[in-house]
Queue: 3 jobs
Job 1
Amino acid sequence: MSRAFVKESDADLVELPDRPVSRHPNLVTPAGLAAIEREVARCHAAHAAAVGAADKAAIAAAARELRYWSARRASAEVVEPPAETSRVQFGSTVTVQRQDGRTQTFRIVGEDEAAPAHGTLSHVAPLSRALFGKAAGERVEIAGGEVEILAIG
């Protein structure tokens, strides 16, 4: 196409591909929803600042993040903490013992709020999926190993 038919403003736009959105249900804890809403607000502020500075790369990055977090907020399904603790479910805090004797405790949460180093594990993680519906004392095989559920809270 000839440059004569391209608006200068269109040629200078920076376009970033959208962040991939999980195909799994977007289950979140109440705290997870609050974190998503904080991200939406942060992205709005970053976008406004980038527009004010006329920084096209920053505008594109903020717009991309805003699209992602807005989609996650729109699809969020809040799951209240479980009242029943006899079986593992979304929101449960689970203590397991691995074959090597290590004991680990984690809470099963939404994908965006999961941080294994901080004791939270995504509900779509293989270990979480293997534990769903199980009770304390049961053993679950995962990744060629075995874990025993010691406690559910």
Note: The first strand starts at residue 27 and ends at 28.
Job 2
Amino acid sequence: MVAVLLLIAGLIAIATALVTLSVSQRRAAQRAFDADARRELLDGAIRVALAEISSGKPDGPFWHPRQPRTVSIGGKHVEVTIEREGGRIDLNTAEPKYLVAALAVMDRPENDARTAAVRIHDWIDPDDAAGPNGGAERREYQAAKLTYEPRNGPFETVEELRQVMGLSDLTDQQLESFTVYSQQLEPYGSEAPQPVRDALNWLSRSAGEGGVNSLPPDAVNTNSSEPVSYAGSVIRLRACLLDEKESPCRMTVQRVTGNSREPFQVFAWR
């Protein structure tokens, strides 16, 4: 009798475990399905925006930089925003003073910001000679017990900036000031997001060229009646679900080629 009861108890335990596992698997599968559906929804909204940018109607509506628009996809409302990448500071080509300014307005001491700018240059230059005033090359990374060394080549992504010695604490929001796609020596102030505008104002004050009003606060252009040309520009589109504030957004960076057969050159889509 005892053996039978033990056997029954064991079978019940096994059955309970299987039911629990099955429920857990169903929930995981549902989460994966929801994530895939959300990603396709956001990508669909981005594709709608790209189609309107490349071959929009003569009478609009037109896409203006930093002016969010709502796109309806599958009964869901998606907010899509477009920006020119030229408003950001290019890690590979920008003059060092812009790197210093961007880091300084992130509440880093100016001396630390200047050291970081030297290390950014050391990361991309082809030699192993550390720059002055705190530069860092292979030897310095090894001494710091880091398991990697400078690329000695251009940054491939903005996130790679966190690998530069001393910059591992940069937040996603702070990385928004930078790009690797514009290939410009300096950012365009008229196209810059507010953190970059703050950096340009800091640089202006440091040079004695004016105060905090050297660049006006960023403002959204609400006039959508005039067409905008993005031909030749590198643009960034971000799509976010309006009905789900906590859901991750989708982002793409592309060059508008002006070629009707291949209107866009995709750099990133995530």
Note: Residues 2-55 form the longest helix (54 residues).
Job 3
Amino acid sequence: MYEKRLRDSLPRVEERIEKARERAGNGNQVRIVAVTKGHPIAAVRAAVAAGLRDCGENRVAELDDKVGELGRDAATWHLIGHLQRNKVRQAVPLFDVIHSIDSLRLARELSSEAQRAGVTVQGLVQVNASGEETKSGIDIARDVGPGLEAIAAICELPGLHITGVMTMAPFDAEESVLRGTFARTRALFEQARSVKNFDAREVSMGMSNDFEIAIEEGSTMVRLGTILFGERVQ
């Protein structure tokens, strides 16, 4: 089921990504994170077989189950959902990249666990560029200053390797709102290049409903689930 779905969907998605890259004209490479959250193990297997090694999971428990069944090296595991501080110890051994470092408090918890475990946590600083109260992340809707301050503080913490920023746009917003959200996030990323220890590589923004606009505004990593796999099972 998932193999057939990807044979149909992936080439179309890749073509749309390439056209969006051409329109952007910035030379950015764009990586697909296949959002396998809510889908069974078969979806991860199909994604990897199709060449999509980056798989995104939302919940620590689901990530734990999939890593336990498939193995830690079966994919590059991305934790894309909110991480509660009391789940940090369980989560750190499971993922390769965390997209949702949404506060200094969480960053400090991750730093502490990284040092305890003798590992380096690779992550992105999550920002709220739309001003929605329901969105997590450092608020940069009116001013990127708080985002720059947060990135600088987080990058000072031992055991963390911060490689970029992440945002989520409003789901059903007008194009102008989407572009503004993504453009503010990209502007923050560019200004943060001068921050000590900030390894400016990734701008994670864009999902199934808005990834082309996100790419046009400078995304380097899109998180795609429904458009690849169909509606989630759970």
Note: The mean pLDDT is 96.
